[in-house]
Design brief:
The structure holds 2 protein chains of 2 kinds. By secondary structure, chain A is mainly β. Chain A is built from 3 helices and 18 strands. The two termini of chain A are about 30 Å apart. The mean pLDDT of chain A is about 90. Chain B folds into 2 domains: about 100 residues, Carboxypeptidase-like, regulatory domain (Immunoglobulin-like), CATH 2.60.40; about 525 residues, TonB-dependent receptor, beta-barrel domain (Maltoporin, Chain A, Beta Barrel). Chain B has a 22-stranded antiparallel barrel. Chain B has a 5-stranded mixed beta sheet with strand order 9-16-17-12-13. In chain B, strand 48 and strand 49 form a beta hairpin. In chain B, about 45% of the residues are buried. Classes of the chains: A mainly beta, B mainly beta.
Chain lengths: ~270, ~775
C-alpha cells in the first residue's frame, strides 16, 4: 500500500505527511521466542511484547525449560546465560536434519520444528548506482550459489556497523541455474548528499563496516519471515510458527557471510 | 300502423343507443414514444395524461394508455421540458409520439432533481437512485473533471473508498461487490489512474441508475449494488458536438445522423496529458503517465418495431518509469442490442456483450525481466422481455448466459513461469411482476435463478487447513466441474399514504461469483480476482429495507428516510501474512466468512428555486466475521463509515452563472493499529491484537465550483472553475506506524495525505 501511495503521489505530484496521535490501548504482554540452530551452534532467546510507546528493549528471560532435539535422537537442554540467551555451541545443525525446539513457560509447552537446508556460498558482491524516477539508487548485488533442481529459500541480512540495515527473504523458483542474485536497493544518492540527520538510518557512510549474511532457510521459516515483512504493510500479524499463542519463530539454517568496508570509490559506474 | 312506427322508432333508437353505448364501452390503445427533441434520446419517466388516465414512459421512452372512444386532451409533460398538449379524437388504436423541447437552462437546473424526486416517490423499490447526468455534472469534482462516480459518492448510503478515488461503497459493501455495467457490458475497476478519474466520460452518457437496495431480478452478479450506465445513441436529426480542455485532460464528442431519422452515431474521446508536464522536469522526464478512453455508438431504427444499437468502449491507463517499469490496465467493452416490439403488450431486448479487463505490469530489475498479467473476460447474451398482460401489471422476464475467462495471475520472473487461469459458465433466468393493486398500493415480486458452473481445462485443488495442496485434479476442457444453483427472490411494496407520501418495504437476495481480493483498502487495477470454485463458494447477500418519502412545501421540498439490514455470506480476505504474490494458487491465500451491515439513511432535499440541493446523513455499521482473523470474532469492516454526511448546494444566479458547493464528512476509516511491539532477529515488529479496532482521523472537505455559460445562436461555450478541498484539509490517505529511535517512545504514527487545495479550470465549446 505504501508503495502504491508513492506511485499515486508521484502521479498527482502532490502529497503531505504529518505525525498524528492515536490513543493506543495496552495489552497483556505476550511471550516471544527466537530459536536458531545453525552450522555454528544454537541460540534461543525468550522475550516478550511491550507497550507500543515503551522505548526500552526487552532482554531475554529465564523460563522453565528450553530443549532442542533432532530426528536422529540427539537432545539437549539449553542453559540460560547471563546475557539472557540460551546458548549451545555443541548442538550444531546438519543439513537435511529436522530439529525441534520445545520451550516450557508457566507450565505451557510451545513447540516448533525446522529442517536445515544445504550449504550456500556468497559468490560475489558488487555495488552500482541505478537511476529510478530521476534519482540514483545504490544497489548492492549479491550472487549466491544455489542448488539446482530444487526450490530454495534464502534470508539475507545486511548489517551496517553490526546493526541490522536491510533484510528480506527470497524464494528461488528457478531451478535451472546454479546461482541466484539478490539486488538490494540500499540508499538514494539524494539522501546521501543531503546528509540529513533524520536519514542517518538509511544512509551508508564512507568507512562503514558492512556485513552481508545469507541464510539458507526452510519453507516454514520463509513463510514466517515473508509474513513478517508484510506485517508492517498489511497491518497483520506474521503467521504463528509455534503451536501455542507465542510470537517469534524457530529456524534451522546454514549461513554464509562476507564483510567489507564501504567506500564510494568501490561503486561501479 | 302508428303503433308499429312508434315501436320501430323506439327499437331503432334503442339499438342506436345500445350500439353507441357498446362503442362507448370499448377501449382503444394509445401508445407511442416520448423523446427529447434535440437529441432524440428517449425520456424515461415522462408523464402522459389523457382524460382521467395516465402513464409514465418506460426505460425506452414508450408509454401506453387505454381509453374509451371520445374526444380528449392528451398532454405529455416532463419536468425541464415544455409540455406538449394536443386535442385528439379516439375511435381506434392510435400511435402518438411526443418530441419534447428542453426549457431554459435556468429551469433545467431544477428539473434534474425533480425527475428523481418523482421516481423516489413512485418507485416500488427502496434504495433506487436514478442519476441525472446533468445534475451530477453540476456538483464540484476533483481536477475540474466531471465525474459521475464521484458525484455518486454524495448520495446517502454511498461513500468513497479513499480521498479522491472513484471507487464507491454502498451500504457497508465494498467496491468489489458493485456491478458496474456500461450498455449491459461489465466494467471492472471503473477508474483511471488508480480511480482518481472515472472511466465514464460524461458527454458519452445518457442515463445511469444506481440500485443500492433491492436489485431488480434482471441483474445478477452483485451483492452490494448495481450501477447501470447507458451511453448516448446519437442525434438522429442534426450534428452536434463539444470540445473541452482542462488542466489535466482534454476531450471531444460528436454525434449526428448518418441517415436522417434512421441511422445515427455518437463518438467521444478523452486523453489525459499529465505526461506532457512530466517532460518539463528533469526528475520525471523519462516517465510516461496517461490514460485515454473512447466511446462510440451506432443506432439504427430499422422500423417502428425494431431498433439496433452497437456500442464500443475502450479505456486504457499507462504508467511507465523509464525503462524499469511499465504498467497498463483497462477495459474494452462491446455491446450489440436489438430492441423489438412484438405487439402493444410485449417487447424485447436481445443483447450480446463482451467485457475484457486486462492488467499488465512489467519490471526490469538488473538483468531480470519480471512480468505480471491478468485478465477478466465476460462474453454473454441477455434476452429480456417486457410484457403488459394487464394495465396494472408490468412483467419482466428473460434469460442471461455468459462465459467467464479469468486469469487470476500470470507471472514470468526470469526464466520461471506460473499461471492460474480458469473458466466458468454463469447463467440466470428471471421473472418479475410490478403490480399496481390499486392507486395506493404497488407490489413488486420476482425471482432470479442463477446457475454457476466452473469449467474444466484448469487444475482444481483440495487444501489442508494450512492451505497446502493435498491433491490436484484437472477436469476435461470445458466440462462442468462444480455447479452451484442460487435462488434469489425479490419482494417489495410501495404504499402511497397520500399523493405526496409513500412508504416502502423490500426484501431481496443476490449472489456474486467473481470475488475481487484486495490487499489495500481501495480498489487497485492489480487486485487479484477469484472465481467461485470447489473451494470458493458463491457470495450471497440478503437485504431487508424500509423507507418513507414525502414531498412538502408545494413539492419544493422532499424528506426521506430508509433503514436497511444486510447479511452477507462467503466473503473472502487474505489470511494474515499472505499477499497477492504469496502463491499463484489464490485459494491457498484466502479465508472465508460472513458479514453484516445495517444502518439508517436520511435525506432532506430542496427541489425547486434558484437554490437547490440536499443534505444527506447515513448512520451505518459494517462488520465481518472470518475464522482465523480477529480470533474469529466480529470486527468492524474496513469500509465501515459510521457517520456519513453530505451537504450539496447548487445556486443558479442567472442564465449564465451557476455555482455549487459540496461539503462531505465521514468517520475516519476503520484501522488496524498495533497494540504492542517486540523484536525478532533485531527486526522491530508490531503485534496487532484487534482487526480494525482503531479509527483514522475523520474525513471532511469542502468543494466549490462556478460555471459560466454563454449560449450563442450556433456556438455555446462554458468556463468551469473549481476548488477541491477549499479549506485545504489534509485528509488521511494512508496511516503508517514507524519505529523512530529518536522519538521518546521509539515510535511514531504518520498520516500521509494526497490533496490539499486543488484549483481547476476547464473550457468547453459546444456546437
Amino acid at each position: 500500500m505504501k508503495y502504491l501511495y508513492y506511485i499515486v503521489a508521484l502521479c498527482l505530484l502532490c502529497s503531505c505527511e504529518e505525525e498524528i496521535q492515536l490513543d493506543y490501548r495496552p495489552i497483556e504482554p505476550i511471550y516471544v521466542i527466537e530459536g536458531h540452530v545453525s552450522n555454528d551452534g544454537s541460540e534461543v532467546v525468550i522475550t516478550g511484547t511491550r507497550d507500543i510507546e515503551d522505548p526500552v528493549l526487552k532482554t531475554g528471560i529465564e523460563v522453565q525449560s528450553v530443549v532442542l532435539s533432532s530426528d536422529n535422537g540427539i537432545k539437549e537442554t539449553l542453559t540460560y546465560g547471563e546475557d539472557g540467551i540460551y546458548r549451545s555451541l555443541s548442538f550444531v545443525g546438519i543439513p537435511d536434519e529436522t530439529y525441534t525446539l520445545t520451550v516450557v513457560i508457566d507450565g505451557e509447552s510451545y513447540t516448533s520444528s525446522s529442517t536445515m537446508p544445504g550449504f550456500t556460498e556468497i559468490v560475489s558482491t558488487s555495488m552500482r548506482w541505478e537511476e529510478m524516477m530521476g534519482n540514483d539508487m545504490l544497489h548492492l548485488i549479491v550472487d549466491v550459489s544455489d542448488k539446482a533442481d530444487d526450490i530454495n529459500y534464502y534470508y539475507y541480512r545486511i548489517l551496517r556497523n553490526g546493526k541490522l540495515f536491510k533484510w528480506n527473504v527470497v524464494r528461488d523458483l528457478d531451478s535451472s541455474n546454479n546461482t541466484i542474485q539478490f539486488d538490494i536497493s540500499c540508499m538514494s544518492r539524494d539522501k546521501a548528499e543531503k546528509n540529513d540527520p533524520d536519514d542517518y538510518d538509511s544512509i551508508l557512510f564512507e568507512g562503514d563496516d558492512i556485513t552481508v549474511e545469507v541464510r539458507a532457510i526452510d519453507i516454514k521459516a520463509y513463510d514466517y519471515l515473508f509474513s513478517a515483512k508484510l506485517s508492517g504493510q498489511n497491518h497483520s500479524n506474521p503467521v504463528y510458527d509455534f503451536n501455542g499463542e507465542v510470537l517469534g519463530y524457530f529456524s534451522a539454517y546454514t549461513s554464509t557471510s562476507k564483510s567489507f568496508v564501504f567506500h564510494y570509490s568501490d561503486i561501479e559506474d | 300502423m302508428t303503433k308499429l312506427k312508434t315501436t320501430i322508432v323506439i327499437l331503432i333508437t334503442a339499438v342506436a343507443l345500445c350500439s353507441n353505448a357498446a362503442l362507448a364501452q370499448h377501449t382503444f390503445v394509445i401508445k407511442g414514444k416520448v423523446t427529447e427533441a434535440d437529441t432524440t434520446e428517449p425520456l424515461i419517466g415522462a408523464s402522459v395524461r389523457c382524460g382521467t388516465t395516465g402513464a409514465a414512459t418506460d426505460v425506452d421512452g414508450n408509454y401506453e394508455l387505454s381509453v374509451k372512444v371520445g374526444c380528449y386532451d392528451i398532454e405529455c409533460s416532463y419536468i425541464g421540458f415544455e409540455n406538449d398538449r394536443r386535442r385528439i379524437t379516439v375511435s381506434c388504436d392510435t400511435v402518438i409520439n411526443f418530441e419534447l423541447k428542453s426549457v431554459t437552462s435556468e429551469l433545467s437546473e431544477v428539473v434534474v432533481l425533480s425527475r428523481s424526486m418523482m421516481d423516489r416517490l413512485k418507485n416500488t423499490q427502496p434504495g433506487m437512485e436514478r442519476i441525472d447526468i446533468d445534475e451530477m455534472s453540476k456538483t464540484p469534482v476533483l481536477f475540474g473533471e466531471r465525474d459521475i462516480l464521484k458525484s455518486l459518492q454524495l448520495l446517502p448510503g454511498v461513500s468513497a473508498e479513499g480521498d479522491g478515488t472513484g471507487g464507491f461503497q454502498v451500504r457497508g459493501g465494498t467496491a468489489s461487490q458493485n456491478l458496474v455495467l456500461l450498455d449491459d457490458a461489465p466494467v471492472i475497476n471503473s477508474g483511471h489512474l488508480f480511480g482518481f478519474f472515472s472511466t465514464f466520460n460524461d458527454p458519452a452518457l445518457s442515463s445511469a441508475t444506481l440500485y443500492k437496495g433491492q436489485i431488480p431480478a434482471r441483474y445478477g452478479g452483485a451483492t452490494s449494488s448495481v450501477f447501470d450506465v447507458n451511453t448516448k445513441a446519437g442525434n438522429a436529426e442534426k450534428y452536434k458536438g463539444s470540445f473541452t480542455v482542462g488542466l489535466l485532460s482534454a476531450k471531444f464528442d460528436i454525434e449526428g445522423p448518418i441517415i436522417k431519422d434512421k441511422l445515427s452515431f455518437f463518438a467521444s474521446a478523452r486523453r489525459s496529458y499529465m505526461d506532457m508536464f512530466l517532460k518539463f522536469t528533469d526528475q520525471f522526464k523519462d516517465n510516461s503517465l496517461y490514460f485515454y478512453d473512447i466511446n462510440a455508438k451506432v443506432n439504427y431504427n430499422v422500423g417502428y418495431n425494431d431498433k439496433i444499437a452497437v456500442s464500443l468502449f475502450v479505456g486504457r491507463d499507462n504508467l511507465g518509469m523509464s525503462d524499469m517499469m511499465n504498467m497498463q490496465w483497462g477495459n474494452i467493452t462491446t455491446t450489440a442490442k436489438w430492441y423489438h416490439t412484438f405487439n402493444d403488450r410485449l417487447a424485447s431486448v436481445a443483447t450480446l456483450y463482451h467485457g475484457n479487463f486486462i492488467n499488465d505490469m512489467g519490471m526490469q530489475i538488473t538483468s531480470e525481466d519480471d512480468n505480471m498479467y491478468g485478465h477478466l473476460r465476460q462474453t454473454g447474451i441477455k434476452y429480456s422481455f417486457s410484457w403488459n398482460p394487464h394495465e396494472n401489471h408490468n412483467v419482466d422476464f428473460g434469460l442471461q448466459s455468459a462465459l467467464i475467462d479469468l486469469k487470476s495471475a500470470e507471472w514470468t520472473m526470469g526464466t520461471t513461469h506460473q499461471k492460474e487461469q480458469r473458466r466458468g459458465w454463469e447463467s440466470g433466468v428471471w421473472i418479475n411482476d410490478d403490480w399496481a393493486i390499486n392507486e395506493r398500493v404497488h407490489v413488486m415480486g420476482g425471482i432470479r435463478l442463477g446457475i454457476m458452473s466452473t469449467l474444466g481445462g484448469s487444475p482444481y485443488y483440495r487444501l489442508d487447513e494450512s492451505g497446502n495442496i493435498i491433491d490436484c485434479y484437472t477436469p476435461r476442457n470445458g466440462k462442468p466441474y462444480k455447479t452451484y444453483l442460487s435462488i434469489e427472490p425479490r419482494l417489495s411494496l410501495n404504499y402511497r399514504i397520500t399523493d405526496l407520501q409513500s412508504i416502502k418495504m423490500a426484501y431481496s437476495r443476490s449472489s456474486q461469483n467473481i470475488h475481487a481480493i484486495r490487499s489495500t483498502g481501495s480498489s487497485m487495477p492489480f487486485d487479484r480476482y477469484a472465481m467461485t470454485s470447489n473451494i470458493i463458494k458463491p457470495q450471497t447477500a440478503d437485504q431487508i429495507s424500509a423507507g418513507y418519502v414525502a414531498l412538502f412545501g408545494n413539492t419544493r421540498w422532499e424528506i426521506s428516510g430508509e433503514v436497511f439490514y444486510k447479511d452477507i455470506h462467503n466473503i473472502y480476505d487474505y489470511k494474515d501474512g499472505k499477499s497477492f504474490n504469496s502463491e499463484i494458487e489464490i485459494e491457498r491465500l484466502l479465508l472465508g466468512g460472513k458479514g453484516r451491515a445495517y444502518g439508517f439513511e436520511f435525506t432532506l432535499r430542496k427541489n425547486a428555486g434558484k437554490l437547490t440541493g440536499w443534505i444527506g446523513y447515513t448512520l451505518s455499521w459494517a462488520q465481518n466475521k472470518i475464522g482465523g482473523i480477529n480470533n474469529g470474532k466480529w470486527y468492524t469492516a474496513g469500509n465501515d463509515r459510521r457517520h456519513d454526511i453530505s451537504v450539496v448546494g447548487i445556486y443558479q444566479f442567472n442564465k449564465k452563472w451557476n455555482m455549487s458547493a459540496a461539503w462531505v464528512f465521514n468517520t475516519g476509516q476503520a484501522l488496524t493499529a498495533p497494540s504492542a511491539k517486540y523484536e525478532v532477529d533485531g527486526i522491530h515488529m508490531f503485534h496487532y491484537a484487534e482487526r480494525n479496532g482503531y479509527r483514522a482521523p475523520a474525513y471532511h472537505r469542502l468543494d466549490l465550483s462556478a460555471t459560466y455559460t454563454h449560449e450563442g445562436p450556433k456556438l455555446t461555450y462554458e468556463w468551469s472553475f473549481g476548488i477541491y478541498n477549499a479549506y485545504s484539509r489534509y485528509n488521511p490517505f494512508l496511516i503508517v506506524f514507524e519505529t523512530d529511535e529518536n522519538a521518546p517512545t521509539g515510535f511514531k504514527t504518520m498520516k500521509h495525505s494526497l490533496f490539499g487545495l486543488v484549483p481547476s479550470v476547464s473550457y468547453t465549446l459546444k456546437f
